[in-house]
Amino acid sequence: MKKLLVLLLLLYPLTAIAETYQWTDERGTVNFAEDLGKVPKKYRKKAKRLGGDEESVKIINEAPAEPAKAKKDEPEAGKKLYGGKDEAAWRREFGQAEFNLKNAESDLATLKGRLRDTSTMSRSEYLSIQNSIRYAEDRVQAQRKRLEQLQESADRLGVPAEYRK
Fold first, then answer.
1. Which residues are CB-neighbours of 123 under 8 A, at least 6 positions away?
2. Regarding beta strands 20-24 and 30-33, do their DSSP bridges make them parallel or antiparallel, or are they unpaired?
3. How far apart are CA 21 and CA 164, in angstroms?
4. CA-CA-CA-CA torsion for 58, 30, 17, 96, nearest 10 degrees?
5. At what angle do helices 123-157 and 87-114 cross, to 10 degrees?
6. Sheet architecture: strand order including 30-33
7. Is the pTM here over 0.70, yes or no?
8. Closest CA to 89 of 12, 42, 150, 8
9. pLDDT digits 0-9 by tens, 106-150
10. Exposure of 121 by Cβ count < 10 A (0-12 exposed, 13-18 middle, 19+ buried)?
11. Percentages (nearest 5) of helix, strand, coil residues in the chain
């Protein structure tokens, strides 16, 4: 019981660190974001920071918003959408899925490499690495499945092959 209380007391301050921004768009929809950079540029001056004093956010350095995020509010007439996503969204999603798969495969290879010389490690370390390998193999399978599902979805929606790179 004491361990639980200590754990809760240690985690409690982490909730105070989070900042959330709120703004209302021209359609009257109330939106939320955890980062001021994710708030569209035209709404940043009206954004309110929640969780502390709810004054308007003062912008010190106005960095341009990410183009893909800003275009969600104002769809362009010439853009072709596949399943509600444009070219940039599909490329980003495939890039992220491929990156996650390569990262998981790299972690697995590193763990297997550590088992090449077991003469200097303890039994508990050996068993720990084996458990980590099983977890990494599950992660690789999950990432492969995610990429496969994304491919099937793109096939079904007719997404061009060049968007999948």
1. none
2. antiparallel
3. 33
4. -100
5. 160
6. 30-33, 20-24, 48-50
7. no
8. 150
9. 999 999 998 888 888 899 999 999 999 999 999 999 999 998 998
10. middle
11. 60, 10, 30
